[in-house]
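Appendix B. Worked example

We walk through a single record from start to finish. Start with the input: the chain for Alpha-1,6-mannosyl-glycoprotein 2-beta-N-acetylglucosaminyltransferase, Apostasia shenzhenica, length 449.
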Amino acid sequence: MAFHKRSRFKDVGFRRLLPLALIILSVALALFLLIITGAVSRASVNFPYQESEKEGPSSSMLEMTDHILLNMEEFNPKLPKLNDFAISLEQRNRLPPRNINLFPNLAENHVKIVLYVHNRPQYLQVVIKSLAEVEGIGETMLIVSHDGYFSEMDEIVQGIRFCQVKQIFSPYSPHLYSDRFPGVSKGDCLEKEDPSVQNCNGNADQYGNYRSPRIVSLKHHWWWMMNTVWDGLPELRRHSGHMLFIEEDHFIYPNAYRNLQLLTALKPMKCPDCFAVNLAPSDVKSKGEGWEKLIAEKIGNVGYAFNRTVWRKIHAKAKEFCWFDDYNWDITMWATVYPSFRTPVFTLRGPRTSATHFGKCGLHQGQDKIKGCIDNGEAKFELDKIDTVPNINMDWPVFVFKKQHGYQPGFRGWGGWGDQRDRELCLSFAYIYHSPQASTDKKYVSKHP
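Next comes the structure step. The output line below is what the pipeline stores for this chain.
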């Protein structure tokens, strides 16, 4: 009897404790799930920017990143139908790099070099000759991006023998289309015509000017090139290190590549908040201060280099880039893209320049068949011995130019970029390697073997 009472009391006590135990267990399980979910959420937020400098991101990483950064449901990417010649150029873009037999292996942690060109062969000759004298040039790959196709420019690049060379041609360049957009379309507004009176097509910029294909091609080419080299080429897709960008009117010093390697290695330690490195001062007329210090200042447009993490930040600002009314890519970056980062955007460079801008013909002048700028491209550069060898000391401190002249808030651009078609084509380039909607023309390409 006593045993029965003890068992009954024990059962009653258990039944009383059971609800409390279940509540405690449920709370513990909920907390555990919350912790796990929070960890996953934090990993998802930070994931796109946690890229290794040694190993490039996988294609799935790129797709996840772009899905996050290009979440613009209201925009439908549109690309012009390629003509036959543009199709042939896109097929050339798929060819492997040349000179692999001469340079079978690229150096570990090399910095790829991208040279973007238009139609100034007299300048390109100078740049190619300077690159041939650069120490270490055979360790890397040179990617030459053409704004459309000009036979003399192609022939010059075909003659390069000092490193691996990959040529790409913009198949959407206005120079390839003589009777339709992105070239001149029938019925397009010209200069400052009134569309209500003339019944023409197009949108004027903020100053009342209508599009000029040879002018807008500058910004289109730069943006197409950036999207292509970072996200479109198999040879570069896993490259997460820096890429150096130079133009056909940039003379490159013999020490440029070695200095570039030093700067990219020093940036995480000396200037961890710097977005890029530069071979030249932001003031194109300056040769440098000559100090025994590294310099941190605003990013210049001569010999600039950054990595994939920075490209992801730029790519995320595609709408800001494509909607700003200025046909200059660099002014667009300075005036609207960099300020949108909400943090100072600095670059690290040495106290002496390793690249120089030369020539007197602007891009739009060099491409004008009627009023073309005449310049034989002869350039004489007297280099001091110190400019022929690496001249950056790893122990130098960093001097920061905190206040620099630039475009002030409220600056609306110099115009030339008001046509809605140009803005939509530009934004479509940001989707071209990430959205099935933006790749409809690739099906068209496959029909023309």
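Two observations about the output. The radius of gyration is 28 Å. Residues 2-46 form the longest helix (45 residues).
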